[in-house]
Amino acid sequence: MEDKNRYCSLGVALTSAATVLVGAGPPVNAMEPAHRAIPSWCPQGGTPTELDALPRRIPVDRCDMRGKRIAIGGGVTVTVPREKGWVSARVIGLRDAEAVRAGYDPEENAVLLESGAPPEELPGVPPEEPPEPGDRIAERDACNDSSWVSTKLSWRRSGTIRWKYYFDGQTGGLDEGDFAREIVRGVSNAVNAVTDCTSEKRFSPAPNIRAEFLGKSDARPNIGANGSCSRRDGQSVIGLGEMRGVEPWVLGVSCAWQVWRHTVEGDVLLRAKGRPWWLSGVGKGRCPANHYDLASAATHETLHLLGLGHTDGKAHSALTMAPVIKACDTGASTLGWGDYLGLLRLYGPRGEG
């Protein structure tokens, strides 16, 4: 990995460590009578409600939040599921932003909200020592940094994530074939633990999760043009498209949908206008000023969908899951030691059932 600061996102990310519950907002007293008045914070129209204005647990008989939109920062919103399940969202951008998770539990008949994720240690998962540094590796802290953070999302171990790409043509001069190759490279780097930290260019064993590329999707990622994570549609898509109404620092949005304990769908929508992308892997010259590496964004966002969150603090800024993206930064297109350890903890080594 190159010794450069990494970057941000809000994705979608996918379950290992407990998240920090959203504690802001008014408490809910379960002993209040059923005929009580609708609370002032309960949304009555179509306007999104700020996350901090809501309690962490909302009984439906007090305020039915199913199908309602919650504003999570940067102009981005998440739509609470109407059926049993969860949706998680993360902003991809030029500054850090918390991950948000919203779900409906029919057994409790309540909407539940969560935000953030704590770091998690990984003792005793092989290989137990960082690999020997190779060419130009000694200066790259990512190859020796074991830090990682998990979210409450993960796919089934030994499973295969089947996904497509989306290209709307309004891309500021990007070639569709080059775009697809860079997105495929980023996803493959994540699931196959590609790295600059070993002479083999991969960590071994690879994590026990795979991805299968199914070609082009006719439908854009299931993320609205206003940056809203809506209802899942049965396919996972990473694409480039228009995003109206989001703040200028937002590069994109990632969303993941979870049923029971496992992720079943994950989408990423990158901004087609307003933020120029650079395709570092297609050999078309140096990165122009204020452009952002597409493969690095794809790798970072795939790791979110797989279940990794942002690392905390500048000490870990060399890892792929550092929270901030910088112009022309290509280092995040491959994994650091901590990024790899997190995937091993979530999925185990490939070959296990």
Topology, number of strands: 16
Uncertain spans, ≥5 residues at pLDDT below 50? 2-25, 118-129, 133-140
Measured as a percent range, the helix fraction is 10-25%
**Mean of pLDDT:** 82
Judging from the principal axes of the Cα atoms, what is the shape?
globular
Beta-strand percent range: 15-25%
The largest pleated sheet is described as:
10 strands, mixed
Describe the structure.
The protein is α/β, with parallel strands linked by helices and 353 residues long. The chain has three helices and 16 strands. The chain has helices at residues 176-191, 294-306, 337-347, and strands at residues 9-10, 49-50, 57-59, 69-73, 76-79, 85-93, 100-105, 110-115, 160-167, 210-216, 228-229, 236-241, 250-259, 262-271, 277-278, 292-293. Strands 1, 3, 6, 7, 8, 9, 10, 12, 13 and 14 form a ten-stranded mixed sheet that branches. Helix 1 links the parallel strand 9 and strand 10 (210-216). Helix 1 crosses helix 2. It starts with 8 loop residues before the first strand and ends in a 6-residue tail after the last helix. The model is unreliable at 2-25, 118-129 and 133-140 (pLDDT under 50).
